[in-house]
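Q: Is it fine to ask for two folds in a single conversation?
A: Yes, each is treated on its own. Send the first.
Q: Here.
A: Result:
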Amino acid sequence: MSNPLAYVFSCIFVLLAHGAMLFSVFYNGSYDDVNAVIVLMAAVIGLDAVYFIILPFFKQQTYAVDFMLILILNMGLIFQSCFGGVEFRFKHFITMIAALIACRIGYFACRDHRWIEDKRKFIWIGIGILMGVILLFTGSRSMWISLGESTSVQPSEFIKPLLVLACATSVTEQQKKHKLLCFNVVYENLILFGIVAGVCLFQWWCRDLGSIPTFGAIYVSGFLLRICYPKGKYSKKPIIIAVAALAVLAVIGIIVAPPYVRDRLFVDVWNDKNGHGYQQAQALIGIADGGWFGKRPGHGFLHNVFAYNSDIVFATISEEWGLLFSVMSVFVLLMIMAIPLVNPPRSYYHGSMCAGIAAAFSVQMALNIFGSCNMIPFTGVTLPFISMGGTSMVVSGLMAGMLVAAQSPAFKAPKKKKQEQKKPQPVPSQQMQPVPPQQPQLLPPRQDVPQQPPVSYTLTDRRK
């Protein structure tokens, strides 16, 4: 830990924020037995303390996302435990712990971007397997697998992090271009387009149209970062073609949409308050009744409306806690997404991964909040980390762990292939014979030099 003092101050800040909310529940909440408040306090403060003790054992470069995560999770637990009266929501507490565990899994799995890139084919296969599981085990045109009377799983939620990893890319991958007709394309980009198109058609067939904008946002962010990578030469043609294709698909989707979807697109909530516009009309009334500071925890009416703790949870919080508190919750969610983008990740792959996660969370927030406020058609998408829901909570925690991994990545040098050296082959024993010593050979006299006769001297000659 590089700065222990900052870590301690961050812990104190989170504890004070949760303590202030619990203080408001104790003095302003609607409850018959004070033990319900005491159990809620023990769960929130106890989880904070355990999390702060365990977190330093994970060596990270920064813990900012982790503090924002525990802050918003326990805020959601307090919200959920006060709707219609103070009562500890044990099921939501269990899903929170599962989300924290999933966060650690996402952290360890996504630290090494080279390892994930090598496994991208398995990611594509995993998306196909999940769609097959939905077809085989959910029944006719459904997205839920029932595990009991009160427990169900939505496998399509796990497609979101896999699609984020599939759309994430590195600069080196985008330089492997091939000539196709009159375009320089990357084959992996065409494969991803086919995968996203298949996922969206599958969602339409399963009547879960509310999740299609989330998958589309993940792909669009990945597509832009794939064609606009640093120092990459790209033309405007792919962007223009992509925008035109999206517009055409949107028009076709509206035309072929089921009747109940078209009714939601063009419904007047005030003229149909008891029909398709019932939830939105009640949500608007609840937001107006709550005002800036709310009607106090447990004193609202929206807990009598269907999906008050999931699809219109923003309106339910606004009614009991006030619009100011709802906006503060949204601000914490924005901080979770903004921290990895403001503090640049250490690799282009991690950067594109963070952009995909931020796009998914942003679209989910917009669909939930604007749908509750009747600014867009009601879609029934959950609010990350706050809405009641087991599968969506766990998947959101997993994606938060991916954001943490982008802030503290692990770089490993690629393994070099060992070159096999040719070893000298041994000579068979039958062919091994002693080599006789070689006699030195005298060089023959050179023929190009004329030979002179030797000069002989006598005694008489020397006297002369």
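Q: Second one now.
A: Result:
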Amino acid sequence: MMRPLDPAQFLNAETYARTRLPVEYASTLIPDAYTMAEFYALEQERVFANSWVPVCVTDEVRTPGEFKVVEVAGRSIIVTRNTAGELRAHHNVCRHRGSRLCEGAGRVERFFQCPYHAWAYDLDGACLGTPLFTADSRVPVEQRAAFDMADVKAFDRNEMGLYPVRVSEWGCLVFVCLAAETPPLADQLGDLPARLNGYRLSEFRLARRVEYQIQADWKLIAENFMEYYHLPWVHPALVKVSPMDAHYRWQGPGMYVGFCTTPIAANTDDGGWKGLPAIAGLNAVDGVSARFAWVFPNVAVNVLPNHVVFLLAQPAGSGRTTEVAYLLTHPESEALSADPAGDTDGLLEFWDSVNKEDIAIVELVQDGLRNPAYAGGRMCYRFEESIHRFQNMLIDRILGVGTLPPGDDAETVRMFGPRNAAAT
């Protein structure tokens, strides 16, 4: 297959024929999918505009009026909570002349007000009125009559509310969806919430947040996260607490890729996951395991007995990604710790070190994929089944296929060693 491809071929099923093969025969996704602006634009519309996309953690929009502006598929969206504490999301565009209403994150008391002509909208998106609807208008009293809109014909502010966006939450993650026809978030997540139910994710609180600018496609970050093959060479410290012979597939039906380490080993001189006490109530297996999932399309979920880490990979252009790392802890663990801040800092230091090792590698891969000589490589059977699953989920969305991937017959399947060895 010649490179670069004619972008028209991106919608041709034959383009992905080698990746569609069973994993033991399959080759990786076409390199142009990581390097060409045309593919990036296509996946923005066919993947991100049609999926439930994680945008923040619940602590960033926990109280009424608290808001965060996010971007999905090129659309600016306001995520907030109404006065009843219910999640709401709106397109960040005034219904009058289209100005963006707000930027960044913050809190408003009762409404969002357009900076252009002062149209205002309540937290549910309803239009409250045009200038002078509040007593604190900046228009001088003697000039207010000139701004009276009472005699405007065929104007109903009830029809001028903000454009709504679907919003939902799971655990301590907030998702939005631009497409009305996309099935509910629960369908996309499949059995993952049930698998992680014992960890009480909704009770975890944001402890640390770190942002990284990565010169690599968001899919490379996803694929690097979900495979163990690179660990001995890239993460010498990580494999000391996440031993190779303790790695398992942990995969049910749903739009995610799941795996686990059980049991996860104790800390070493290089750091590790211990420090904060584990939460109470975990069963014997969850209490010694690390659960990992890449939730399609773009978030890594790392759940351990005493903390949670999300890695949110936000596409920032062809070959560029903004990654936000969230470290969450449980109030119960902090209350039992002799040094909660120090223990949390230790966790962040360990994860930051591992993440920077990954960033260096995926940026090298991005550089290599730009070479037209590279036409794709063979999947490494067993070690890259996870990537095969992810890439085929992506291809499904590009081609408009709505398949929900199935899960394994066994709860956990060993990645290394005898294939029939399974954990309970």
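Q: Anything structural to flag on that second result?
A: Two points. The first strand starts at residue 53 and ends at 57. Residues 340-369 form the longest helix (30 residues).
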